Amino acid sequence: MRLRYFFFLLFCSFSLSLQAQEKKEKVYTFKIDKDIDPAMNRRVKLALEDAVNQKATLIVIEMDTYGGAVNDADDIRTMVLESEIPIYVFINKDAASAGALISIACDSIYMAPGGSIGAATVVSGGDGAAAPDKYQSYMRSMMRSTAEATGRNPRIAEGMVDEKIEIEGISQAGSVITLSVSEAIKYGFCEGEYKSLTAILEAQNLGGAEIVAYEEDFVDKVISFFLSPAISGVLILIIIGGIYFELQTPGIGFPILAAIVATLLYFIPYYLNGLAENWEILIFIIGIALLAVELFVIPGFGIFGVLGVIFILGGLVLGMLPNQNFNFDFVPASQLFGALLTVILAALASVGLVFWLTPKVNQWGAFSTITLASTQEREDGYTSSFYAGTLLGKEGIVHSRLRPSGRIEIEGEIYDAISRGDFIEQGEKVIVISTEGTSLKVKKLEA
């Protein structure tokens, strides 16, 4: 009898132990410790999704940021407010501007000694001056509605944006509200001061909880690698160099393949991070098309060629920036300058590489089987002419305007022709100076 009782107690103890393990709290943590931008927006989205998959019972954000893009902050705020899992934020040490908005959206706010929250005035990315009132109004409304949703004083939240709001005992007209730890606790914008995340969990009786920290997976690490300005510069160099070599030696395949791969590696990471938009990639593709038209359809280097280069470089620059269409008000000046510098230096490097590499290509044994390195002389029977040599030196009349290609009439016959870059009007007299190629080369016959 005693033995049966002993086994019964052992079974009950084992069952309770299993239940305790099953009910063990799981706390999921991640950091917002950089500017609020599309990359941070994506990190928060992935972290919150992972927390759901991990069946976390609580999410804690460790915050230390001076703010960033308003649109990305709004996206993050919305995700936090809509989360079915409670979200705490631990401000260690700053939650300014967009960081304040996200913090106020959380269920509970905790701060480290010396921390602060507030100063949410919207500033432009160029000179750091206050943005126009329409942006301030938008930010005020978000701060107010977020504070209302989480049970905090909406007037104080608005005062973090608008320097005209005066609250007795808290702020004076002419300065926006920034709360210290003690002030935040006093006015309901902080639940307590703690030195660490562990201290917060212990205070909430979660000292024994399992803590899971967000970590980038392999794909995210690869994306971060290719977002490096140095790597982006190398990819731009390969893109421009590959396009040039393929246009100079069409049919080889390797240069254009390298350019395509580099283009994908360049745009995909920026696209996934919300920086490169569809229309910006389209601008780059249009630039390639314009350049091809200039080289193959309208020989020379005119408006199509110039526009092609501008569109290609423009697409590469725009793909790196967190702009909203053609609005660059909130693009940090340093980021804009960095993108321009990266693209320009890479373009110049690719041009220098092309001039250095082109004379050497034919000397490489690896290219001798796919390129024509030898000269095929006319005396040996080689010719690229589609016309009889008797047309050389013949005079004719421009049948359709040469721009610089068109058609001419010689002795009643119509021939394709191209000038030396000059535009020659219809009816002008010309003389054939070369019969090689698919078009006669002509020049204007001086009177």
Question: What would your notes on this structure say?
Answer:
The protein is 47% helix and 16% strand. Strands 1, 2, 3, 4, 5, 6, 7 and 8 form an eight-stranded mixed sheet that branches. It has helices at residues 2-22, 38-53, 70-82, 98-105, 133-149, 154-159, 181-186, 197-203, 218-226, 229-248, 254-272, 278-297, 303-318, 333-361, 365-368, and strands spanning 26-32, 58-65, 87-96, 108-111, 116-118, 178-180, 192-193, 210-213, 395-400, 405-410, 413-418, 429-434, 440-444. The chain folds into three domains: 23-215, 2-enoyl-CoA Hydratase, Chain A, domain 1 (Alpha-Beta Complex), CATH 3.90.226.10; 219-368, no CATH class; 381-444, OB fold (Dihydrolipoamide Acetyltransferase, E2P), CATH 2.40.50.140. The relative contact order is 0.07. It contains 15 helices and 13 strands. The termini are far apart. It has 447 residues and is of the alpha/beta class.
